[in-house]
Design brief:
alpha/beta, Rossmann fold, 7 strands
Length: 209
């Protein structure tokens, strides 16, 4: 059952992309968009979002005052984000590509952000590419697992569902290792929200001595 649910969530990025927002809202009991706000910040330079999905975070980042580029390999998600951009009159850029081969120059972004990504985010190729495109002092921000702290029956159901798919749980110190192997200085952080605790993995690129 866990494998079936995991496969279903992956299809949400392709053939079932039209249902993504509804499924995310229902499965999180309305918390999904609140969880994503744990990634928001104002940066002094360009920001890249990996796996931008339907474009909500891109719009949030731009509205906060950032210069934003979104990257996603899914044509369905690119189309959805493009519609959202046009409807909002936004200017964020969209690029169809894989995180393992970023089509950007070295030392370009102030931040690279991924909210609730799949396992691609911890692949060596992905992390090496993120390190390459970040400026010195730039940050890789990964909003990963979460703990649903709400006590209502629906919150308990959502917590069980996400734990079943491996998307909810406590912080694991081993998360540091892949980022450190790619050269990042790593910190694990938690963001408390009204009905959840969001775990944030932050990797900073420092100049080699």
């Amino acid at each position: 059952m866990r494998a079936i649910l995991t496969l279903f969530f992956r299809y949400l990025y392709t053939t079932l992309a039209w249902s993504y927002d509804a499924v995310a809202w229902l499965s999180s009991m309305g918390q999904w968009r609140t969880w994503q706000t744990a990634a928001l910040c104002i940066y002094p330079g360009p920001v890249l979002e990996l796996g931008h999905g339907p474009g909500h975070v891109l719009l949030d980042l731009e509205n906060a005052g950032n210069q934003v580029i979104g990257l996603d390999p899914s044509p369905q998600m690119s189309a959805m984000a493009n519609r959202r951009r046009k409807q909002a009159g936004a200017s964020f850029a969209l690029v169809r590509a894989r995180a393992q081969q970023l089509p950007f120059a070295e030392d370009f972004f102030c931040a690279v952000i991924a909210t609730f990504p799949t396992e691609f985010i911890l692949a060596e190729e992905t992390l090496n590419e993120c390190f390459r495109v970040l400026i010195t002092g730039g940050e890789l921000i990964v909003i990963g697992l979460h703990e649903i702290t709400g006590k209502g029956v629906f919150d308990r159901f959502a917590s069980l569902l996400y734990r079943f798919t491996g998307q909810s749980g406590e912080q694991d110190p081993n998360w540091r290792t892949p980022l450190e192997n790619s050269g990042f200085t790593v910190s694990l952080e938690s963001v408390d929200q009204p009905r959840a605790r969001i775990h944030r993995l932050r990797g900073v690129k420092h100049r080699a001595d």
